[in-house]
Structures are given as C-alpha cells and as structure tokens.
Amino acid sequence: MNKMTGLILMVLGAVSLIIGFIIYYSPSENSAGDDSKVIQHAMDVAVSDGVLTNNEKDTLRRLAVERKVDAEFVIDTAQRRINESKYKAETAVIDHSKKNGDDFEKYIVKKLNKKYFTIKEWAGDKFVNGTFAQTTLNPDLIIEFSNKEIKQTFAIECKWRKELFKDGLEIAENPQLERYRTYEANSGNKVFLAIGLGNEGSSPNRLFIVPLSYISNNFLNIKFLAKFEKQDLGKNLFYDFENGSLR
Question: CA–CA distance from 66 to each of 34, 61, 86 (Å)?
Fold first, then answer.
C-alpha cells in the first residue's frame, strides 16, 4: 500500500465517520427512543433534589405534550420515584408559583381602601394528613363594603398567571368553580375572580375582575377577559354597590 492509497482510505474513513454521525443524530421517522431519553433525563433532573416543584411539573408536562406522551403518567412516575427514595430532600425549595399567588392576594388587598373595605376572612391553605379548615374551600377573600348606611359583603378569588396559553387562561379546576358557585348560592355573597397576568404576582401587567356568574368554564379567552380589564392599575378597586360590580 503506497502513501496515496493510505491517504485515500483515511479520507474515506473520515467521511464515513461524519456520515454515520449525521445519520445517528438526525431526526428519524421513529424518534420514540430519543423522546424517551429526553423525558427520562428531565425526570432525573426534576427528582434529583427530592422535591417536585410546580415549575418542574410544568416542564415535564410540556415535554410530554410535545412528544405525545401521557403527561400525568410522567409526573406521577417522577413523584413516585421521590416517594420511594430513602433520601430526604437536601434543599428547601421555594415554590415560585405559590409565592406569586400569595403576592397577588396581597396586591389585591392593597387595592381595597380601608376606609370602605374590611377583610372579614382571608383563607389559608394549611393542612395536615388531608385535614384542613372548611373555610379553605371558600374564595380567598371575604370582604365587607361599608359606606354610611350601606353594607354589603362579597368574595374575591385571586388567580395569577405568568402568560397566556392558546390565547387564554385556565383559571381554576372545574370542581373549584363549583365550590365557589355553591358558596355564592349558600351565602348570598357575590363572588368575583381577580385575575392577574404577567410580570409577577406583586405587580401584574394586567388585571381582570370577572364576576363568577359570567364564567361558564375554567378556560377564559383573552377577548372575553378584556371586557373586564381594569384600565388604570394605579387606582384602587371601586365597588358599585347599586349594581354589585367591582372594578
């Protein structure tokens, strides 16, 4: 074998290696194996600290939906791996979704002028072994409006969302909405959903105040929400006791 022949064989070998590399890493018609590896890696990362946060659940759900895999099965599997692990979580995790939700409640409370509004109840979500206060199932805030001889009580359920999904927002589970409707019917207190959108819970970019009676399902299109948008976020909330509207 002369030098020229050896050089040609080396070049052919290099070309074959490059082609093989391209074929191996190129998308194929059946990419189920690759999808499985991606989801498995995401699960490994999510469970590595022994805590499955809402943000990690959202990531797993998005990956599963993109790859047409049962999202709830993936999340349940990740949670089961954590539950079966003999190691306790090594880190304290801040649940940013809950923090933003709590901050948004405070944001709404700050927009209620103390001269006219009194917070009668501010629901918490503490529980242990499935035991919780009955008021936990009520809307977040029970408010009494008072102006001279006028007194009216109403409720506000606070929801904050980071961004739109398919031109709308999923604002609650249907069973939650049914509980709020039951509360409204039994108490006689009108229920409003205060919905914050964008930025952070403590300072949303947009604010919508929607009467529960106008809500027929748990997904609200942005065109529908725009009808109830508060235009000036710098102003406090105003309650019109004559027609029972909050804006």
Answer: 13, 9, 32
